[in-house]
Amino acid sequence: MLTLAIIKPDAVGAGYTGKILAHLEGAGFVIRAARLVKLTGAQAAGFYEVHRERPFYRSLVTFMTSGPALALALERDDAVARLREVIGATDPAEAKPGTVRKLYAESKERNAIHASDSPENAAREVAFFFAEGELRELSGGRH
Ligand code: CMP
């Protein structure tokens, strides 16, 4: 099963990309596709469309366009739920010890990483960044 993660501009800018990738791989996720992107306002607004009415929406779009971010299609069994466990609560102050957000996030908005919140959204979000042909087949190794 696939899910989408985005290592956000705060974490990429702080130089945490490699550490976060190692954390995700160590938790059993396999990278099926990856792209360093700098989102346009239209792209970020579209990606976070479901939050359009929320008070933090404009600020979130500004933040997500503020620098490069790394979009990842990740595979694992039960990938959506497992990735959400590994990254921790939205607010790093509430995230459990050892989670990506506890380790690397700055704030509720600048929270280092995004992960899809349902299998339906995972399919939509993977397709938002990657075409079918960009999802590499797994070969060798543990999977
Ligand atoms: P993410 O998992 O990408 O989904 C929506 C994002 O909105 C979230 O991570 C945060 O970056 C941001 N966000 C959610 N809640 C708040 C909030 N209360 N204040 C500011 N930003 C928020």
Structure description:
With 143 residues, the chain is α+β, with helices and mostly antiparallel strands. It has a single domain (2-133), classed as Alpha-Beta Plaits (2-Layer Sandwich), CATH 3.30.70.141. 38% of the residues lie in helices and 17% in strands. It has 7 helices and 4 strands, in the order βααβααβααβα. The protein has helices at 9-13, 17-26, 41-47, 57-64, 79-87, 100-104, 119-129; strands at residues 2-7, 30-37, 69-75, 113-115. Strands 2-3-1-4 form a 4-stranded antiparallel beta sheet. The model has no long low-confidence stretch (mean pLDDT 96). It binds adenosine-3',5'-cyclic-monophosphate.
Number of strands: 4
Question: What is the helical fraction, as a range of percent?
Answer: 25-40%
Rg from alpha-carbon coordinates: 14 Å
Hetero groups: adenosine-3',5'-cyclic-monophosphate
Could you say what the CATH architecture is?
Answer: 2-Layer Sandwich
Low-confidence spans: none
Number of domains: 1
**Quaternary status:** single chain
Major beta-sheet overview? 4 strands, antiparallel
Shape: globular
In CATH terms, the superfamily is Nucleoside diphosphate kinase-like domain
The structure class reads: alpha+beta
Distance between the first and last residues' Cα:
12 Å
Hey, roughly how much beta strand do the residues contain? 15-25%
Query: Which series of helices and strands comes N to C?
Result: EHHEHHEHHEH
Strand arrangement within the widest β-sheet reads 2-3-1-4
